[in-house]
Write a structure and sequence with these properties.
binds adenosine-5'-triphosphate; RNA binding; disordered N terminus; seven-stranded parallel β-sheet; nucleus; about 650 residues; 4 domains; 5'-3' DNA helicase activity; Elongation Factor Tu (Ef-tu), domain 3; six-stranded antiparallel barrel; Rossmann fold; globular; Helicase_ATP-bd; alpha/beta
Length: about 650
């Protein structure tokens, strides 16, 4: 949506009351939960075990090959296939919640244990369990993915809390629903930055953030240093004495902030399951800090004392002695629990910043803690209901994101249609606009030819390229030759007239074999000119095309490290060279969900030094926005026909 469009929708935007919001969201959360359960368990068509294996939501016939304790008291079990070196095809990813069962157990049967996927390799899967399953580990096993229902319960609980209008956020709630105007301090906030390299738009944004009374939106177009700005805001707010809760929808985004805060020696705590945290941030995990605390040593001493007493009791024959010991044990156990709780409270009380995912903010450990400020990164990719889990804990909020890139992924098409995916960031941008928002305007990623298209279409032409990137070329990279493939910044490979029609795969996703061959062909040319494979990404809107591209990549050893992904899966990332396969090519000139223009904004802005667009210009030009994109590439880039790639 262009700026003009944004203004229009602001004037049209209907306000929603707290009550309307709550009553409309509750059924949508249920719909989404159901959709996730059926997608993750593969139950949409049939309930059989066989189907679940086929859909990749179970891995059968595993053996436990290693057990290690570590990771803060968790047990890490490694599993490999009984049937060969490589695990069968599956859809597990790290951080998934899984249950372990005997291989042949019925689908509804109870499990040997529940854990979180910690590490995944081609040949093994490692799961972190709270406790080691007592037996059954020597027989064939299977792992089943389970839907994470806790998230949905936490979102619903947050809505119930919201309906009560109490707690630290009581003044902020009416502002976020347009019932009261946002407040600001009148004078411009001067500050002395910790990071001396901040640009003018980052400084202006921070200044505005610091003077905001209830709400501030940091609008960060691609590559403009949103996280850099958030880190400075956190440091400035700590300096003023604020206690901060910093969240994002994904663990990786939270860890990213933790890492960026490290050099400033901030007193911070990262809350979350250790198996979900990057190894480099584990030291900041709550569990790790509790283990180091004084109260925890006291709790340990008590546990030792209890062990001795327990042994004494077992040996004692005298009833009265046993009764006395039992009484003493009860007192000690109570004290041990108290010390444990105090150990947790100590760590959380002493922290200036607590970082967790949005739904992690509902953790019972934060139950009694309130914050002066809640910061949400990647807010334009977070469900509004998830934001409320964190928001209710604070009296001010700052949201960072870009509503002109893709919104959160919603599983249930119906819930999406009914507004589950509309983000708080977008709602507030429409409601208040620049009154509460600052846009970062210098970008540190793209050559200006790549940037100018996005800036013109989406950001009112207001973005500038920093001098360090404005004219950077692929052949400026070490060991890269200047060649006809590495010279252009923009390339359009047109397949129109080459009979490279799209087709559907078994799951009804669209693919285009001709385009895939061209994309791989271009990647090969780049590698032959000295570009490293890991600096190249091939992205496409359609998952079937991703699969097909991966098959082709498998036939070229040199391309092993080329990353292939959907556009949606690549949001937030970047590569020196990006090749986009748009896929759609048909006589009816249908372009499907390419009409969501934000998807193309994300796709193009992933590239730093070269963007190569492979498409059927006749089909995609049916959409006027895409037509404009094609014309932009024709005017500013190299136009090639598919025949240049051997067709
Ligand atoms: N003021 C600055 N001067 C120099 N480099 C900067 C500045 N601000 C940000 N950068 C660089 O720009 C890149 C992107 O910044 P950062 O990681 O903060 O942004 P992000 O929020 O993670 O990404 P995006 O802006 O794409 O959302 C980083 O390499 C960062 O070092």
């Amino acid at each position: 949506m262009e700026l003009e469009g944004l203004k229009m929708s602001r004037s049209k935007s209907q306000k929603i009351t707290v009550e309307q919001f709550i009553s409309s969201m509750i059924p949508l959360i249920d719909m989404e939960k159901e959709a996730e359960i059926s997608a993750s368990l593969g139950l949409s068509s049939t309930r059989s075990l066989h189907a679940s294996q086929k859909r990749g939501s179970s891995i059968f016939n595993l053996k436990c090959t290693d057990a290690q304790t570590g990771l803060m008291g968790k047990t890490l079990l490694e599993f490999q296939s009984n049937k060969g070196d490589v695990l069968p095809a599956h859809k597990f990813s790290t951080h998934d919640v899984v249950v372990l069962k005997p291989n042949k157990a019925d689908q509804g049967s109870s499990s040997l244990g529940q854990g979180v996927v910690y590490r995944l390799k081609d040949s093994s899967i490692t799961v972190a369990f709270d406790e080691i399953p007592e037996d059954g580990l020597n027989s064939p096993l299977r792992l089943e993915k389970v839907a994470n229902e806790v998230t949905y319960r936490r979102m619903k609980d947050a809505l119930i809390q919201l309906s009560k209008h109490k707690g630290p956020a009581v003044e902020m709630i009416p502002v976020l629903f347009g019932e009261k105007l946002p407040t600001t301090t009148k004078k411009i906030m001067q500050f002395s930055p910790f990071n001396k390299t901040l640009d003018h738009s980052q400084r202006d944004a921070i200044s505005k953030a610091l003077s905001s009374g209830n709400v501030f939106l940091l609008h960060g177009p691609p590559g403009t240093g949103k996280t850099t700005t958030i880190v400075e805001i956190i440091l400035q707010e700590i300096k003023r004495g604020s206690k901060i809760l910093a969240c994002a929808a994904s663990n990786i985004a939270v860890d990213n902030i933790v890492e960026r805060l490290f050099p400033y020696r901030v007193r911070l705590v990262r809350l979350g399951h250790p198996a979900r945290l990057l190894p480099q941030v584990l030291e900041s995990a709550l569990d790790a800090q509790v283990l180091r605390g004084d109260n925890n040593s006291l709790a340990n001493d008590i546990r030792k004392e209890m062990k001795v007493l327990n042994e004494k009791m077992l040996k004692s024959k005298d009833r009265n002695t046993r009764r006395d010991i039992r009484k003493e044990l009860r007192t000690l156990s109570k004290e041990e629990r108290r010390r444990q709780q105090l150990a947790v409270i100590d760590v959380l009380k002493n922290a200036d910043v607590i970082l967790t995912t949005l739904t992690g903010a509902a953790s019972h450990q934060l139950e009694k803690i309130t914050f002066d400020l809640v910061i949400i990164d990647e807010a334009a990719q977070a469900l509004e209901v998830a934001c409320w889990v964190a928001l209710l804990k604070g009296s001010r909020c700052m949201l960072a994101g870009d509503h002109l890139q893709l919104p959160p992924t919603i599983q249930s098409a119906e819930a999406e249609k009914m507004g589950l995916g509309r983000t708080l960031f977008e709602r507030l941008a429409n409601l208040y606009g620049e009154e509460v928002m600052s846009m970062l305007a210098v970008q540190y990623r793209m050559h200006e030819l790549i940037m100018n298209w996005s800036s013109g279409e989406f950001y009112g032409g207001k973005i500038q390229a920093h001098s360090s990137v404005a004219e950077h070329k692929l052949w400026d990279l070490e060991n890269v030759k200047r060649s006809s493939s590495t010279e252009p910044t923009l390339i359009l490979v047109d397949t129109a007239g080459f009979e490279m029609e799209e087709k559907k795969d078994e799951e009804d996703s669209t693919m285009n074999e001709g385009e895939a061959t061209i994309a791989i062909g271009h990647a090969l040319r780049l590698v032959e000119s000295g570009v490293q494979a890991c600096d190249i990404g091939i992205i496409t809107p359609y998952s079937a095309q991703v699969t097909y591209l991966k098959v082709l990549r498998g036939t070229e050893a040199k391309l092993k490290d080329v990353e292939i992904s959907t556009v949606d899966g690549f949001q937030g990332r970047e590569k020196e060279a990006i090749i986009i396969s748009m896929v759609r090519s048909n006589v009816k000139k249908e372009v499907g969900f390419l009409t969501d223009h934000r998807r193309m904004n994300v796709a193009i802005t992933r590239s730093r030094r070269q963007c190569c667009l492979v498409c059927d210009t006749e089909t995609v030009s049916e959409d006027s926005f895409l037509k404009h994109l094609v014309e932009y590439f024709q005017e500013h880039g190299e136009y090639l026909s598919a025949s240049e790639y051997g067709h």
